[in-house]
Amino acid sequence: MAERVLSYEQALEEVLRHARAVALPAAPERMELQAALGRVLAAPVTAPRDHPPFDRSTRDGYAIRADDFDALNTGQTLRLIGSVHAGESWAGAPLASGQTIEIMTGAPLPAGADAVIMLEHVIVESESLRVTQPRKLRLGEHMVARGSEAHSGDIVLPVGRRIGAAEIAVAASCGAAQLAVFEQPRVAIVPTGDELVEPSLTLQVALTDAQIYNSNSHALAALARNEGGLAFRLHIARDNREDLWDRLAQGSIFDLLVLSGGVSMGKHDLVEEMLTQFDAEFFFTGTRIQPGKPIVFGRIPKRGGELQPSERPWHGSWTYFFGLPGNPISTQVCFHLFVAPFLRALTGETEITPRFAEGRLAESVRANADLTRFLPAELTSAYDAATVRLVGWQGSGDLAANARANCYCVLPPRAEDFAAGETVRVLLR
Fold first, then answer.
1. In whole angstroms, how far apart are CA 295 and each of 166, 355, 404?
2. What is the pTM of this model?
3. Degrees (nearest 5) of the Cα angle 374, 379, 382?
4. What would the pLDDT profile of 38-76 be if each residue is shown by its tens digit?
5. Which of 17, 225, 291, 301 lies at a CB distance of 3.0 to 4.6 Å from 330, suitable for a disulfide?
């Protein structure tokens, strides 16, 4: 197997190229509106009528004809002829020049009205309205015109949109009680290593000095669920060929296989060797990043015979895989950088690239390295700026430091040192 070590940008482009080519599930499922939270739309949501369906007032005030306002500014008054509330329509004659109608927020403007003056800007006495002081009022002021948000038949939520609270609100405003969503891809997670012990409520195991609890598969399962996948944590694969063969055989029936550990150059790092026995095609075998350099990405032929037809994954004849480093922070950084974009594509989401932002460094940072570095950091948001501060850590095994962070500060390769106050990029998580 030829080694292929890429820059971060090259590796991401390789992942995105394959992600955009994966087949989506043919048959969507329909879910109740609230149950669809976090899923991805498989059919568009369209407006059943104009939004808003009438000229709508955005303020409590008085509906007027805009060309009457100049007269108001010269001290003249308008005659109050009635009122209209949200949920009802004006049943009288169209508004004539010299007249006004009291109106509440959300109510339809009466015919003939083309502006709203706010109630705090007027005085009404004996059914006559006058302004408290001269002011400007434009045609269409404090109202939203019919169809200005969407016209009947317009797509308001496209296919491939992840459903959050804003999307649920739009769907509900269109009267949608159910949404068509893509099925969730099935993700197999395989931790590797002789040193690992599974946490257990029922079997309390006293760890030896050389053992650690298996944290990676729990973290990866949580990350996969956050991205819309169905996560299946397989048993720990010990550092021998037989165990790895069994786990790879199990994992090859899934849509995505994510392994942690066993991809470095050590004597017992057997993952790549065993993947070749499953006719693996490797797209890269490392990236010039820190942490996370020893990562592999590729695919193996899918073995679907062990699943029932109703359980069978849909994404073509390949199971794509990521072999991630075993150090916990390396594992999570690589997930955010590479696995998450690919998994978003499997869910049907169209916006799949990693999410970055910018902030100002709270203190100076040494940055001289030949690798793109992703360091645990805390992003503190304020109204006028976002501040980034590196979290003190003891290397890529420091889970406590990673939990204190809420992002990763990105330091490009061969960059000069950064001074406090300089702008840097951060990887959101």
1. 36, 20, 25
2. 0.90
3. 155
4. 999 999 999 999 999 999 999 999 999 999 999 999 999
5. 291
